[in-house]
Amino acid sequence: MSVPNTAPSTATGVSTSEGPLKVPPFKHPLDPLTPDEIVAVSHSVRRYVAEKTVINAIRFITSYLLPPPKKAVLAFLGIPLQSGEKPEPATEIVRKAEVDFVDAVNGHAYNTIVALHGQDWTVESVQKLPEGVQPQISVEELLLCEEIIRADERVVKLAAEVGVKPEQLHADGWAIGFDARFPENTRIQQALMFARWGRHENLYAHPLDFIPVVDSISKQVIHIDFPPTYKKKEAKSLFASTGVDVELSVDSTAPPDLDADAREVANRKRLPPPQKSHDFLPDLLSQKEGFKFRDDVKPLHVVQPEGVSFKVDGHVVEWQKWKMHVAFHHREGIAISTITYNDDGNVRPIFYRLSLSEMVVPYAAPEHPHPRKHAFDVGEYGMGTMANELTLGCDCLGKIHYLPGAYVAHDGNAVVVKNTICIHEEDAGLLWKHTDFRVGGRAQAVRSRRLVIQQICTLANYEYIFNYMFYQDGNIEVEIRLTGILQVYVQDEEEPNPFGTTLAPGINAHYHQHLFSVRVDPMVDGLQNTVVETDILPLPNAPTGSAANHLGNAFIARGTPIAVASEGARDFDYTKDRRWSIVNPKVVHPHSKKNAGYTIMGKGAMTPMMALPDSIVAKRAQFATRPLWVVKDVEGPHGGRMWPSGKYVPQTRGVPPDSLANWAKGDDKLSEEDVLLFITMGITHIPRPEDWPVMPVEHLRLLFRPTHFFEANPSMDVPGADDKQSCPAFPEATNASTGGAHCAH
Amino acid sequence: MSVPNTAPSTATGVSTSEGPLKVPPFKHPLDPLTPDEIVAVSHSVRRYVAEKTVINAIRFITSYLLPPPKKAVLAFLGIPLQSGEKPEPATEIVRKAEVDFVDAVNGHAYNTIVALHGQDWTVESVQKLPEGVQPQISVEELLLCEEIIRADERVVKLAAEVGVKPEQLHADGWAIGFDARFPENTRIQQALMFARWGRHENLYAHPLDFIPVVDSISKQVIHIDFPPTYKKKEAKSLFASTGVDVELSVDSTAPPDLDADAREVANRKRLPPPQKSHDFLPDLLSQKEGFKFRDDVKPLHVVQPEGVSFKVDGHVVEWQKWKMHVAFHHREGIAISTITYNDDGNVRPIFYRLSLSEMVVPYAAPEHPHPRKHAFDVGEYGMGTMANELTLGCDCLGKIHYLPGAYVAHDGNAVVVKNTICIHEEDAGLLWKHTDFRVGGRAQAVRSRRLVIQQICTLANYEYIFNYMFYQDGNIEVEIRLTGILQVYVQDEEEPNPFGTTLAPGINAHYHQHLFSVRVDPMVDGLQNTVVETDILPLPNAPTGSAANHLGNAFIARGTPIAVASEGARDFDYTKDRRWSIVNPKVVHPHSKKNAGYTIMGKGAMTPMMALPDSIVAKRAQFATRPLWVVKDVEGPHGGRMWPSGKYVPQTRGVPPDSLANWAKGDDKLSEEDVLLFITMGITHIPRPEDWPVMPVEHLRLLFRPTHFFEANPSMDVPGADDKQSCPAFPEATNASTGGAHCAH
Ligand SMILES: [Co+2]
Ligand SMILES: [Co+2]
User: A512 C-alpha vs ligand 1 centroid, how far in Å?
Assistant: First the structure.
């Protein structure tokens, strides 16, 4: 049964089940929970809670597969622990689910483990989380935030004062970030406020000048913040010592006491929202005077008359010697697991799991309450929960296969996004080419085909496009594309803007960074891997003219294994063109004599965090302070080390105990171990007017490249390029001297 | 008339003209010389030389358009010197050619200026170049090098000693690089030697152990070098102080005296070439035992049923509000000039000219003669001269338009490459997207189309693919893709390899860097521009907890104009996430109040040079020592400042006087001036076995992005994505819950 109307616009509908459950056995032990399974798990939890606990009313927050131990999965799939050895004997795998929920009456939070036995899901444990620990914020709570502010009389009155009617009032619910004035155990959000002149008008064109804080359990506005304003520098400025030529309407960036009159403390007039529309929907754009769509973009189609080159069996995808498991994950969006490459009959494991484990977007403005804006879009909201339903010919071209996703609703039903991951092939330009330049010499050119696994997520105003791409030459690429709408705040006329860009009159986009933590659980030819840091440097102690370096050109590559846990946090060094590789010390290349590995190529995406090392956001998001972290994986009853900023991210106030910074301590051996890598990629986004009203995509790329892994270029067996459908652009003007011949081999 | 058989395999044929010349007037003053014009210019030079000089016999080396002054070109095209102002009145433009040739008898080099008056090309000047100055090396001289070594008895005998027959002998002619033992005024090359077991077999699989030096004027082998070999470290090692654990068979990396017995000095046995074949042509691959081409790459076509979205008139291309002039250049390959964008009726100039002005590939091995390997592929050989003839469905997909190229042959005829630049469109994924996540919210997705201007060049073993790409959002991207075959040398069994990778038995690929100098002659809203260096930094002097920065998150962007010539050489700073912009200080964005500009995004391609700062290669290739140089453009009778390592690159022995390092000196004002930028992009290539026998492409990307240039996102008028030909990958398995709907707007 489907109840489509209450789902967010990124989802397809809500799915519920009645009668006896028909739970199919999993095909792959990492298959995510199906909608039916989610509903069945909810039933089981609800029954258990009613019978055995004093919990009042359940608000389901998350419900997802608790993955079986790594070695059990590998044994099940017949993947050996070390390439060339025999796989371990298979053991029984119990399918388990993990559920977080809150008591809708008092906000207490619980974690539950449920296991499938036969056709029945049985609760194994219900654990009350410590006071102040907050599970993820659900999409329903985000929607609820808007309802709460609309129902609040003070909010309605404040809006009316700047000419905004109740029905025009909108709010993006955000995690509170950090605000020590509120008790840790209230489940709160900040409501970033906007007005909207019509049903589908771009609300971000009309930011409001106050920020309510809501409690999603009591469903009340509990406080309203008023940011101060900037003015030109005066004799005595708060920023005098910083070199920034402005003054603030208050004497500190710290939050005022809760019992002060926040509006009065801000010491500024009310700022009405900018009135002008800045739309992006075609029908609304068309109404703009003088607006005209381009009429000179001729159609371009991707046509695959014989179908696609990949095979799909449930969540298992096979393409061009690659084999992998692709799963929707409510938190990471996409998780790709058990990635192997068939190297001439030898199935070689490469990564056990690859995913986006966390991200943070710290903003630059210091004045309260703006520093609260540092969204952890993975840990606080869940990238999968925010994933779009994709459509043909829109998000991808050609022949597309979609995978569905599902997450739990407050009431225990499943919210379904039926096409949330798209899988398709793309031509990626030339793969390799060589021409013998001698007279009569021959050429060979081969085109590159790639498999693209894509998801698009809407985080309130922003959009992230995640592409996991596999290539015929053994490369794996993680590409993140940023688009959507900038987070904006209202700006007074003539107000200085030291921490943002004025995009349009009254519209201020604060500087910010997007910092992503890509989690790599490697198994390069087996689970025991070492990460090596390689520096390129001029031959040491060998000046130009010396006997060892006569012309001064000598340079070397110096590799250092990252050997112990306390050395796991690494820095980038541009001057040494530093790079890192994941190698298997047991596997030696027959010719180069170097260890088989995968090298991490991400220089273009490496970005230092700009918040101070002891800032609140740097503490909460330790992962973002370094481009690479290597830690040992430790599996336990709740799976491996998954979450670099902690499992429960909302409202943390410092470095969470079970998080990355604490794993990178001590003397644990990291070489030839079951290691994990957390790679930080990001950009510093100094907004441009060209990013408004919708931002053209910006790309972040991270490449994993086989190095001493294959005996030679593994794509030598890709047939030569010879596309018969390519033709001259202007056939009428084409003659013997300008026309193109087709490829000759 | 066409004489196809003597052209290198990258070209189409040789074109000669007889009878009266029909020279059409140029359409655009930067149109390159046509084959007819090249032949006419040669006739004119030959006649003049015969009548008025004592020069014996001309070997034409280069013959190309001498571009008219910038302001004359802009006036001719009606482009104003400052956006919004009236263009200057047009003045007469005299079409001129510049010709370099050498006296084939004595090697003296000459530069000639020839001007077109009516139908006649008239020699304006013939200037003898100073002793030791060497014009580019022609492709015929490269081919000649192989003939010379084959005709040399000593070479034939040395080859025979290691089992190589005369007909198996091959050589890649390389510039000598640097070797102070030979007089500057001999025109010499080093011959990197290979054997080949069959007509089209991969010769790089069989490197030889000696390196002849040839004089292309006397057509003689004048010396033969024998590299030493490495062995395991002994008690007293040349490399003891360097930390590298090897010993060399000689006691210095310096070259032995010319009168010493080079073979004896090398102090090692002869090394026969590895015997095994490593082929890449499909017919040869197929003969390999057990080899099988992949049969599961299904066809993928790009179809444009209504044709392309661009228009071409000669060399002028118009596409999606962009307009530009695209020219073949024998040295730079592609030069794109007078790039403008039609911003809602206002034609705004962006770049006057964009091209690859130089590059260098320094290798890491210090032992003589390997340090001579540091090819300047632009200045020594000419990227255009090495450009491939392209074929449909092979080098690009879809509807393609080709532009031809022509360069002069030794005898004054024109070598023609009829399809050397391909122009086509590509889908580039999503351009922007936003979804309103609210229940019932709407989405809009727009796909990105790009115009790709591509050339592929073969530099002996290597291939470079140059893509100049224009986007609908105002971005311009320069992408360089590297492929082809690694430069290799023979390696003894068990020989240590501290400066290279052993790709296959006996095959050693030395470490090296590819460092490219992209020359940007900007005219952002006019010729007077300023380059601004922007650092991102935490708010200075404002610790966490201070009144100015309570939570510690504040950061700012600090821009500093590069104001005087002596400050023109810039360094990258990763810790400040440094970036540079080219701005027009006269043009202020109406809302952001910042100057209109284009930002340079090239972090991923920035690479420090590894040769020592006082090394020979760093002196010759000063450009490569910094990621950005800003200098003032100075036009003269030979055009502007074009060549960062000097106009005449072969055989330079230090910093050439008229080169980049000398332009970046003194107090010349750089702000609001006619500036030039030289941007260094590159990679450090530590070869992998996976790069063998042909290297899968590696990408280098440099993006120019409008910043405060457009009032808002200039691509808001691109119609929404709606490709009706996209369809499910597995239609038979598609049902209501898995199928994809088409885009709804
Ligand atoms: Co951003
Ligand atoms: Co290379």
Answer: 6
